[in-house]
Write a structure and sequence with these properties.
Strand order of the largest sheet: 1-4
CATH class: Mainly Alpha
Number of strands: 4
Strand content: under 5%
Largest sheet: 2 strands, antiparallel
CATH topology: ABC transporter involved in vitamin B12 uptake, BtuC
Radius of gyration: 20 Å
Number of domains: 1
Distance between the termini: 25 Å
Length: 334
């Protein structure tokens, strides 16, 4: 115990500067590799498809990136603290169904109330995950795998039929463009990334997230309430899922129970590829942003090339294994 406390006090000297040190390492190594990979990928798809390197196609890519990118922000915070959240896709689907159904009841509440209720459902679901993991003590993978199934089941129970949305103000939240060329959903993602990056770098909570993910025993030894930190990371994940659900239903003008299916695989792949350690305590938003851009562009390019959907799944799985392998090699090197 004395050894752990001593190690903890030594370790806390580095907590404050840990995010900036990690960011410097990322910029020097993996970020440059991701930029090069993206350039090569754009050149390749531009050569094989005449429709790839067009303004309309890039607008479509950026518009689609906003949804998964926002969900990835919450998932990244969870992973930085050493956790996992496999229920993010189901949370997006469930929040989206609730929002769409509220528009279709006999006397729907005012638009701000609908949005507020939708924004509260996600953190409530995230809090359920946090309680199961921190209070009950269930492994995050098992806990969120279970809630993923439960939340998805409620999607189908609650959505007896497709609920469509016709409110023009609400639809504009997901379909608008800034200066006619910047999708509003992409702008939301960038702003939320900047906000969360600030929180992680310059607040006590952010430093505690890195501390808990880097060494939970040392963090606990120096007085950090590790369970509380982990709990709030799952609440943040739920908030981001609610935000993504609002944008998704506004873009598509409906709520369907299958919305968000498969987000878990795509987002974990993006985070691992972007340099977020699967064991926690390491990562930055620059790498994550580039990884999301790369994966979204690859998916778009495969659609333009008419790659069969089963081959796309094979490729996505291979990228995930490659990203995890790279993360494992980085860990061994450290």
């Amino acid at each position: 115990m004395d050894g752990n406390i001593a190690a903890g006090f030594k370790w806390t000297d580095k907590i404050k500067n840990l995010p900036s040190r990690l960011t410097t390492i990322q910029v020097k190594s993996s970020t440059v590799a991701l930029v090069i990979l993206y350039i090569v990928m754009v050149i390749f798809f531009s050569m094989v498809s005449p429709y790839y390197f067009t303004v309309s196609n890039f607008l479509s890519i950026f518009s689609n990136l906003g949804i998964t990118g926002i969900v990835a922000i919450g998932m990244m915070v969870v992973m930085l603290a050493g956790g996992f959240d496999l229920s993010v896709g189901s949370m997006v689907g469930l929040v989206g169904v609730f929002i769409a159904r509220m528009f279709n009841i006999a006397h729907p509440p005012p638009l701000p109330v609908i949005i507020l209720i939708g924004m509260l459902i996600g953190p409530a679901l995230g809090a359920i995950n946090g309680i199961i993991i921190t209070r009950v003590g269930i492994n995050p993978l098992i806990a969120t795998l279970g809630t993923m199934a439960i939340f998805r089941g409620f999607c189908y129970i609650y959505a007896m039929q497709v609920a469509r949305i016709y409110d023009p103000i609400y639809l504009a939240l997901g379909r608008s463009y800034l200066f006619k060329y910047i999708p509003i959903s992409f702008l939301y993602m960038v702003l939320l990334m900047l906000l969360m990056d600030f929180i992680l770098r310059y607040t006590r909570f952010g430093r505690n997230v890195f501390a808990v993910g880097g060494n939970v025993y040392a963090a606990r030894a120096v007085g950090i309430n590790t369970d509380r930190v982990k709990f709030y990371t799952y609440v943040i994940s739920g908030i981001m899922c609610s935000f993504a659900a609002v944008i998704l239903t506004a873009q598509l003008g409906m709520g369907r129970p299958e919305f968000g299916t498969g987000y878990e695989l795509e987002i974990i792949t993006a985070l691992a590829l972007g340099g977020v350690s699967l064991s926690g305590g390491k990562g930055d938003f620059i790498g994550v942003f580039l990884a999301i851009l790369i994966l979204g562009s690859i998916g778009n390019g495969m659609v333009l090339m008419n790659v069969p959907i089963y081959l796309r799944m094979v490729i996505k799985g291979a990228i995930l294994i490659l990203a995890v392998t790279i993360d494992s090699l980085r860990g061994k090197k450290r």
